[in-house]
């Protein structure tokens, strides 16, 4: 009962509802009466077609598991306990990789997939919000990440190894340089097109998870080699920029090949399971230490201020010029958008990488 509601009014409303044969739960149920509720086998393809490609990749496996389990059952027949039982089984049977954490990631993704699935069912009017079973199953607590910033020497060793081994060291060096400069996620580089290069201002348009878009500064050196790569390998203006020598677009498997090969040559990289995301940690840690939290937040492309950052962080958003200033300090190169006097800061990347482009 809200503070403004008078007790006598609430009692009158309850009496009226009882006379009408309506319960409070009925008022919360927004399902459309008379509609035929689909089965899992019928509804999963509809949901999969409605969500973004990233969600399809992330959740498709788990929706397929739900169809295997409940194919002929209507989506409003499954109760929270059954979802939790399925989650426990998926967790127990998760593939045991070297970085396995007891299947928690698989369990978390399954619950996220089911919440996405039932959110669509609520929106389509098949069930009411209060009847959503996936919301009543808690996600497993997420462990803290084992990733951290790489030391300067390790970063130099990583880039040197990638640039002197493999079947396309030029491509691999370009991949590493791009991630170090931009701190972008893997999808940001794989989705880059020649038409996304603003040559005059040394900016690239990154399209990352959650269908977000952002302009990110890069060094003039990196811009030069991106354009040269696109020209030499025949990258179409509206197509994938990164290409193999035969002209085929680069995909996620290149990352697997790159870091598996580096791991074979550098035991510490194999032991710690170094990946492109470690480079994101490395750059953002340095930016935060030198230029502050607000600049690091903008550099990372985080659309919203984290809930634990405090109220003040919402009012101290960094500008694109400040991000370009941090990049100039990182690479040791002037940038057209950077603020004056930016090159006095000691860098973590220029010594390790610039020589690879000479």
From TrEMBL:
Report keywords, A-Z. Answer: DNA recombination, DNA-binding
Name a GO molecular-function annotation: DNA binding
Top-rank lineage group of the source organism = Bacteria
Annotated signal peptide = none
Domain (Tyr recombinase): residue spans on this chain: 145-328
Coiled coil regions in record: none
Q: What family classification does the UniProt entry report for this protein?
A: Belongs to the 'phage' integrase family.
| A biological process from GO | DNA integration
Q: Mention any Pfam family matching this sequence.
A: Phage_integrase
Which CDD domains does the entry mention?
DNA_BRE_C
- State the name under which the record lists this protein: Tyr recombinase domain-containing protein
Identify the PANTHER family for this entry. Answer: INTEGRASE_RECOMBINASE PROTEIN MJ0367-RELATED (PTHR30349:SF41), PHAGE INTEGRASE-RELATED (PTHR30349)
């Amino acid at each position: 009962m809200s503070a403004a509601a008078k007790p006598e009014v609430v009692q009158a409303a309850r009496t009226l509802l009882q006379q009408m044969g309506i319960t409070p739960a009925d008022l919360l149920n927004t399902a459309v009466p008379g509609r035929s509720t689909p089965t899992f086998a019928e509804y999963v393809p509809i949901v999969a077609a409605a969500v973004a490609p990233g969600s399809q990749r992330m959740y498709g496996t788990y929706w397929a598991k739900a169809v295997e389990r409940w194919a002929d059952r209507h989506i409003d027949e499954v109760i929270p306990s059954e979802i939790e039982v399925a989650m426990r089984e998926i967790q127990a049977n998760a593939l045991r990789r070297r970085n396995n954490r007891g299947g928690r990631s698989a369990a978390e993704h399954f619950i996220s997939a089911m919440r996405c699935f039932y959110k669509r069912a609520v929106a389509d009017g098949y069930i009411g919000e209060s009847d959503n079973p996936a919301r009543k199953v808690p996600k497993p607590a997420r462990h803290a990440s084992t990733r951290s910033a790489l030391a300067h020497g390790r970063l130099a060793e990583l880039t040197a190894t990638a640039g002197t081994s493999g079947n396309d060291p030029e491509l691999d060096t370009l991949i590493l340089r791009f991630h170090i400069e931009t701190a972008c996620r893997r999808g940001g580089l794989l989705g880059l097109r020649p038409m996304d290069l603003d040559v005059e201002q040394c900016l690239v348009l990154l399209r990352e998870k959650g269908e977000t878009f952002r302009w990110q500064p890069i060094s003039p050196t990196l811009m030069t080699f991106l354009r040269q790569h696109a020209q030499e390998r025949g990258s179409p203006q509206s197509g994938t920029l990164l290409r193999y020598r035969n002209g085929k677009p680069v995909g996620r498997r290149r990352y697997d090949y790159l870091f598996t090969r580096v791991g074979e040559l550098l035991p510490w990289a194999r032991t710690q399971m170094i990946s492109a995301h470690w480079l994101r940690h490395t750059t953002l840690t340095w930016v935060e230490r030198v230029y502050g939290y607000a600049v690091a937040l903008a550099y990372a492309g985080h659309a919203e201020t984290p809930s634990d950052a405090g109220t003040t962080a919402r009012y101290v958003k960094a500008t694109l010029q400040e991000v370009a200033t941090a990049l100039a300090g990182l690479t040791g190169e002037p940038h057209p958008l950077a603020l004056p006097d930016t090159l006095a800061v000691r860098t973590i990347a220029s010594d390790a990488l610039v020589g690879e482009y000479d």
